[in-house]
Amino acid sequence: MFALFLLVASTHFAALLSPGPDFFLLIRAALLRGRQQADGCATGIALANLLSMLLVVLALHLLPARSGWLWPVLQIAGGVYFVWIGGQALRSRRQLELAVVVAREAGSWAGGLREGLLVSCLNPKVPIFYAGLFGVLRDAAMPAWGLVLSMLWMTLVVLGWDLALVRLLGQARWRSWLQRRVAWLDRLCGGLLLALGLWLLLG
Question: Which of 44, 49, 95, 155 has its CA 20 to 30 A from that of 116?
Answer without folding.
Answer: 95
